[in-house]
Design a protein that fits this description.
The chain has 2 domains: 64 residues, no CATH class; 71 residues, Arc Repressor Mutant, subunit A (Orthogonal Bundle). A two-stranded antiparallel ribbon has the order 1-2. 64% of the residues lie in helices and 6% in strands. With 140 residues, it is mainly α.
Length: 140
């Protein structure tokens, strides 16, 4: 019979806990410890550390957190003000700003869909942004 210290094999033991086990069991514990150490050495030697930049979603899930109630209220208030600013625009300007920034369409795509020149769409969108900025500065 061999006496082993469980604290050496199990990390959740915070105090020494000596147990008498058979020689075969003690040898298995030691073999397991040697195998873990060999595995760690292989990882280090082969530079097989894990990277968060490997694009498998680990980094995203590590960085993602649930928004606090304060953050949710701030988002809701921001959405409310942006929605009101967009609604003060004339119909054509509002439609073009919505198409460009929310739906991600280019000026050329919007112009082709409406049958107008690209420069008029760009001017309309820029003018609409200026009106929205004025509205937000006054009301927020």
């Amino acid at each position: 019979m061999t006496t082993i210290n469980l604290r050496e094999f199990y990390p959740w033991y915070i105090e020494d806990q000596f147990v008498e086990v058979t020689d075969e069991v003690a040898e298995e514990f030691r073999a397991g410890r040697r195998a873990e150490a060999a595995h760690k050495r292989r990882i280090i030697r082969n530079k097989a550390q894990y990277s968060l930049d490997c694009d498998d979603g680990i980094e995203y899930s590590a960085c993602l957190h649930d928004p606090t109630p304060q953050e949710l209220l701030e988002r809701m208030e921001l959405f409310y003000h942006l929605w009101n600013a967009l609604n003060i625009l004339p119909e054509v300007q509002g439609r073009r700003v919505d198409a460009h920034f929310i739906r991600g369409m280019t000026y050329r795509e919007i112009a082709q869909a409406e049958g107008v020149d690209k420069s008029s769409v760009r001017g309309s969108v820029l003018c609409g942004l200026a009106h929205m900025k004025e509205y937000l500065q006054k009301n927020w």
